[in-house]
């Protein structure tokens, strides 16, 4: 990219400080062909000019021996105010012996008297102005203003620089993250959150000094650190953790750390930090562990994941993804009645065989590809509704999953409507399941999206209720049509009184809100009985059927006819 | 009236000085004329009379700077000599140096008339 200064006609401004008019005029005469020039005849005049000027000077040319205030004194003042850091000063002198003193005071260069050829001096001034402008730009861009650590691009660039300049000793890549940082922001406000980040920055900077390390903040509460291998990372963790000693409330702030050891320079450096992060992700919800190392197992997982990501489009094109259906039965009547079905995806991979949804759904959720998967399931489910409708003259509503990322997608409604139109079905026939934790994340947006969907006639089921963060208060303000209890309560209610009590509570709340309740994961007659006695409306689970391909589902429909 | 020719005859390195003035002859002539109003030589003499070597050095140093930039060699050279002696704060008789400078100074003044 061509630089702005070369393109533009904008003239930089130079301040010439010299008591001798002859010197001022000679140097000003040739510099004015390129620059705007202001003159001062001594240091104190120069200060007045600098202070009263709105714009910065690009360069100051300074004579040393002047009446009133000499060049040394002016340099001294500029040094104290930090001005020498942003505005370059070239000293004009015939006096070699003064040079060291000037350099110490922050002068960047010298012009000797009598002056050299103008071309030489102009070129020098240009260079220094360019150098300082670049330096100032870099200063702004290279550091994260909150923590003082490097920004990501500079961080990786400096690592590459270190690796080309020095011998390739082994180094470690580290990823650091604050557990539940969003909660700190929520509970104590952003100021507190920012303070925590700042403190981590300070700690990492001081650790960097002792470990030949450098650190950076990626975004939010994610940090990268690159350093010589440490014997015990628990020490480092403890040290960083101590950043919170000063600002700890009752709530304990904890960190987690992922480490990729002994990295080699033959691969892109970014990869090692990705690995450190994936190691760290493995202990995300495990509060007993704070440090995780990248290992071969993780490497295999990441290769496996990369393969799944690669193969997704082919899988959709080749129908390797199959939608299964699990029936939901109403149990409030004497004999259970088939009410609807839930669409569940299966992947029959040509090389890897059947892949469990537990392996690919969280993966696609984490990188947004779940949207493709969802869209595919919606289309298949809509086709199925239509097919059954034509065959049996009866609607079996099917519920499909709507992921978090779909909710933020502005085209969500259009996409859904398009599918309904193509299959000549109505909004009441395709039910939408939204997981509870999505509600907690950004309730305002979600509520408005869900409201719009409901206005159009869609039925919304809240999935996994009880598993996440939802509060009772939230529940009363939420627009939902059906509550789906998290499987864990059903699984535990037989031998855990608390789970049973919770279940009863949820059923009571649902009744109060006039919302029907679906219980998932029901496997036995006993479970069904307990749920029925307590007023649960609908049951889904192996007791009736596991999820099955469409052709195996038809008997359930035919039994109802 | 002073001219480039006169300055060449005087011994000034006008080529060098004009380079420094970016080829601007009238600027060069104008600046040479300001030497007649420059008070550093006067300050130098007074300081030496008082035997104030610090002040004498400062005046000589300033004078040297401007003369050098104008490449007025005959006047510049003795000024460099006296500046270096004064830089060392040498206790000595400076009269011969001053006389030489004054002589060359007067020659220059004569050219300006």
List the topology elements:
The complex is a heterodimer of chains A (about 550) and B (about 110).
Chain A lengths: L3 H4 L5 E5 L3 H11 L4 E5 L2 H10 L6 E5 L7 H11 L1 H4 L2 E5 L5 H6 L4 E4 L5 H25 L9 H14 L5 E8 L2 H8 L1 H22 L2 E4 L4 E6 L5 H9 L13 E9 L5 H13 L9 E3 L2 H22 L3 E10 L6 E13 L3 E3 L1 H11 L2 H23 L5 E4 L2 H4 L4 H11 L7 E6 H6 L1 H13 L4 E6 L6 H6 L4 E4 L1 H6 L4 H16 L4 E3 L5 H9 L4 E3 L9 H11 L1
Parallel strand pairs in A: 1-2, 1-3, 3-4, 4-5, 9-10, 12-14, 14-15, 15-16, 16-17, 17-18, 18-19
Antiparallel strand pairs in A: 6-8, 6-9, 7-8, 11-12, 11-19, 12-13
Helix pairs in contact in A: 9-10, 10-11, 15-17
Chain B lengths: L3 H7 L3 H7 L4 H10 L5 H10 L3 H18 L2 H15 L7 H18 L1
Helix pairs in contact in B: 4-5, 5-6, 6-7
Key features of this structure:
heterodimer, A: 561 residues, alpha/beta, Rossmann fold, Alpha-Beta Plaits, TIM Barrel, 3 domains, 8-stranded mixed beta barrel, elongated, B: 113 residues, mainly alpha, Four Helix Bundle (Hemerythrin (Met), subunit A), 75% helix
């Amino acid at each position: 990219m061509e630089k702005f200064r070369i393109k533009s006609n904008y003239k930089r401004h130079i301040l010439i400080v010299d008591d001798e008019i002859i010197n001022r005029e000679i140097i000003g005469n040739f510099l004015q062909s390129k620059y705007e020039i202001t003159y001062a005849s001594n240091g104190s005049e120069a200060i007045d000019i600098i202070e009263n000027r709105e714009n910065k000077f690009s360069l100051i040319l300074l004579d040393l021996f002047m009446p009133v205030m000499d060049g040394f004194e002016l340099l001294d003042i500029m040094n104290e105010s930090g001005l020498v850091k942003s505005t370059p000063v070239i000293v004009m002198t015939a006096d070699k012996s003064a040079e060291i003193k000037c350099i110490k005071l922050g002068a960047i260069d010298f012009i000797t008297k009598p002056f050299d050829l103008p071309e030489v001096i102009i070129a020098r001034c240009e260079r220094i102005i360019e150098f300082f402008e670049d330096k100032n730009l870099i200063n702004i861009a290279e550091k994260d203003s909150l923590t003082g650590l490097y920004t990501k691009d500079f961080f990786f660039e400096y690592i590459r620089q270190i690796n080309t300049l020095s011998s390739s000793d082994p180094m470690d890549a580290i990823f650091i993250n604050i557990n539940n940082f969003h909660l700190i922001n929520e509970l104590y406000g952003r100021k507190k959150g920012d303070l925590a980040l700042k403190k981590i920055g300070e700690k990492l900077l001081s650790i960097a000094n002792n470990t030949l390390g450098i650190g950076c903040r990626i975004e939010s509460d994610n940090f990268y650190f690159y350093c010589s291998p440490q014997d015990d990372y628990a020490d480092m963790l403890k040290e960083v953790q101590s950043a919170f000693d000063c600002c700890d409330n009752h709530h304990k702030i904890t960190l987690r750390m992922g480490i990729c050891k002994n990295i080699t320079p033959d691969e892109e450096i970014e990869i090692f930090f990705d690995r450190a992060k994936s190691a760290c992700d493995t202990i995300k919800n495990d509060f007993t562990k704070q440090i995780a190392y990248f290992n071969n197992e993780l490497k295999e997982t990441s290769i496996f994941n990369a393969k799944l990501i690669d193969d997704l489009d082919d899988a959709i094109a080749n129908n390797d993804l199959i939608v299964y259906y699990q029936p939901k039965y109403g149990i409030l009547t004497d004999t259970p009645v088939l009410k609807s079905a839930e669409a569940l995806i299966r992947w029959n991979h040509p090389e890897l065989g059947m892949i469990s949804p537990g392996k690919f759904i969280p993966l696609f959720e984490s990188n947004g590809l779940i949207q493709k998967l969802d869209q595919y399931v919606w289309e298949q489910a809509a086709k199925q509704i239509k097919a059954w409708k034509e065959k049996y003259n009866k609607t079996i509503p099917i519920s499909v999953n709507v992921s978090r990322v779909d909710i933020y997608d502005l085209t969500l409604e259009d996409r859904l409507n398009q599918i309904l139109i193509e299959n000549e079905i109505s909004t009441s026939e395709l039910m939408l399941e939204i997981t509870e934790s999505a509600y907690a994340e950004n309730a305002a947006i979600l509520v408005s999206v869900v409201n719009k969907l409901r206005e159009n006639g869609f039925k919304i089921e809240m999935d996994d209720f009880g598993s996440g963060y939802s509060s009772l208060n939230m529940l009363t303000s939420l627009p939902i049509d059906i509550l789906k209890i998290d499987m864990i309560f059903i699984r535990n209610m037989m031998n855990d009184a608390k789970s049973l009590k919770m279940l009863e509570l949820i059923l009571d709340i649902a009744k109060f809100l006039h919302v029907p309740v679906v219980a998932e994961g029901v496997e036995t007659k006993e479970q069904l009985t307990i749920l029925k006695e307590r007023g649960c409306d609908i049951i889904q689970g192996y007791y009736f059927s596991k999820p099955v391909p469409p052709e195996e589902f038809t008997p359930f429909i035919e039994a109802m006819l | 009236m002073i001219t480039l020719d006169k300055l060449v005859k005087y011994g000034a390195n006008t080529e060098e000085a004009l380079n420094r003035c970016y080829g601007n002859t009238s600027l060069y002539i104008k600046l040479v004329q300001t030497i007649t109003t420059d008070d550093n030589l006067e300050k130098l003499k007074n300081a030496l009379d008082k035997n104030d070597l610090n002040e004498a050095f400062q005046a000589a140093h300033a004078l040297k700077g401007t003369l050098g930039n104008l490449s007025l060699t005959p006047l510049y050279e003795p000024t460099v000599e006296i500046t270096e002696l004064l830089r060392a704060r040498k206790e000595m008789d400076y009269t011969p140096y001053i006389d030489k400078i004054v002589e060359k100074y007067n020659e220059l003044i004569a050219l300006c008339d």
